[in-house]
């Protein structure tokens, strides 16, 4: 505790100048860097102990957001501190994910640190990093699957979630291209996971949206008798899936996998259009349940909204979306500005807070409307604040053009 207190005191002493540098006139990073430094101040996104496996998703998501931040602003005053924090976060997961048999007792969220481990291993060639990378990769092979080959998200029999794709698809793709380049079956399996969810989770009424997940056995109390689909379009789960598509498009070698890349692009484009149409007319952001707009108890949710902002801006920036026809950047910009006005909080101590992020929504439940809108709202959840960093980076990039 004494060491931790000393480290926090040292960080606090250097934190205020870094925050001031992000707020300086003309400094590009603005909210993205400021929120990252605030996460660091709160010491989030790092496993507190080797048994703190519930935080694997938070750690991996933090690593991805911070890595993207460093790439966009490599010469910022905060870059060294952020790089050190990424390394600390990655190091905190090395032990907990270093055994494939243990890894499969965790949700698919365990894979979220895979890209951070790849980046670190490429730089350091550290054997411990490689061991954990290989264990995570092997855990994909060992993951329990349904009769069609779809991976269970966790221990819930035959349940597959959109949520798991953000952790799975970019890691599966990056690992294959870095270490197993001739393994086309790995890319085929990655595509299968995305495809099964796309096929089974199509929302009704031709909205183009996807529901939270499906039960391949069709025996869950909420399962559609034909498709096995759950009944509602949960914003954050759809956000995870949408980000999985755009990030995998960026990583998958187009010249090596032209058919797979084209299918990903088609589906991302369709989903981006559907998400843009599902935006709330008043706020410009997205509901906790996108299929129940305006219903009593439903609300605008901050993590899913930030994920959609990131995905739309990034799709335009990379040339995957036709902004001239559909105005994706206008949709994303309006949503981002609402998020800043509504959910970003100046804590008064130099840090930013982030509000309006729903806790956890599981299909190991009744999956009713009342269940989804009744889950707690968290303040300073990394699932929201890291998504906000990614959204901010894309907003800042678009505004710098």
Automatic annotation (TrEMBL):
Domain of life: Eukaryota
GO biological process per UniProt: carbohydrate metabolic process
Record key words, sorted: Glycosidase, Hydrolase, Signal
Entry keyword annotation includes Lyase: no
Stretch forming the signal peptide: 1-21
Pfam families associated with the record: Glyco_hydro_88
GO molecular function, one term: hydrolase activity, acting on glycosyl bonds
Protein name: Six-hairpin glycosidase-like protein
Organism, as annotated: Favolaschia claudopus
Lineage: Eukaryota, Fungi, Dikarya, Basidiomycota, Agaricomycotina
């Amino acid at each position: 505790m004494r060491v931790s207190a000393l480290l926090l005191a040292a960080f606090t002493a250097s934190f205020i100048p870094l925050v001031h540098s992000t707020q300086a006139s003309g400094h590009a990073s603005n909210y993205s860097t400021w929120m990252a430094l605030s996460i660091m101040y709160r010491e989030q996104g790092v496993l507190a102990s080797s048994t703190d496996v519930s935080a694997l998703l938070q750690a991996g998501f933090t690593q991805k957001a911070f890595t993207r931040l460093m790439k966009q602003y490599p010469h910022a005053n905060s870059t060294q501190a952020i790089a050190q924090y990424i390394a600390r976060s990655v190091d905190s997961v090395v032990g907990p994910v270093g055994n494939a048999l243990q890894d499969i007792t965790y949700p698919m969220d365990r894979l979220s640190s895979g890209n951070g481990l790849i980046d670190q291993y490429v730089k350091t060639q550290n054997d411990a990093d490689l061991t954990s990378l290989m264990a995570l990769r092997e855990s994909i092979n060992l993951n329990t699957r349904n009769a069609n080959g779809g991976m269970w998200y966790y221990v819930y029999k035959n349940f597959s979630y959109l949520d798991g794709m953000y952790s799975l698809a970019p890691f599966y793709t990056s690992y294959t291209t870095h270490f197993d380049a001739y393994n086309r079956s790995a890319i085929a399996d990655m595509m299968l996971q995305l495809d099964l969810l796309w096929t089974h989770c199509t929302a009704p009424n031709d909205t183009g949206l996807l529901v939270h997940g499906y039960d391949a056995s069709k025996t869950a109390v909420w399962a559609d008798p034909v498709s096995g689909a759950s009944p509602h379009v949960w914003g954050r789960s759809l956000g995870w899936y949408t980000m999985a598509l755009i990030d995998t498009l960026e990583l998958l070698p187009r010249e090596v996998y032209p058919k797979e890349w084209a299918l990903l692009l088609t589906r991302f484009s369709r989903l981006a259009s559907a998400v843009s149409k599902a935006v709330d007319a008043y706020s410009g952001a997205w509901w906790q349940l996108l299929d129940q707009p305006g219903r009593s108890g439903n609300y605008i949710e901050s993590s899913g909204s930030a994920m959609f902002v990131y995905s739309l801006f990034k799709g335009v920036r990379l040339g995957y979306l036709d902004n001239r026809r559909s105005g994706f950047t206008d949709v994303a910009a309006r949503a981002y500005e609402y998020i800043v006005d509504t959910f970003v909080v100046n804590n008064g101590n130099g840090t930013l807070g982030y509000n309006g992020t729903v806790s956890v929504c599981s299909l190991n439940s009744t999956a009713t409307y009342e269940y989804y809108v009744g889950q707690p709202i968290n303040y300073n959840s990394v699932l929201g604040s890291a998504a906000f960093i990614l959204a901010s980076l894309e907003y800042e990039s678009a505004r710098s053009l």
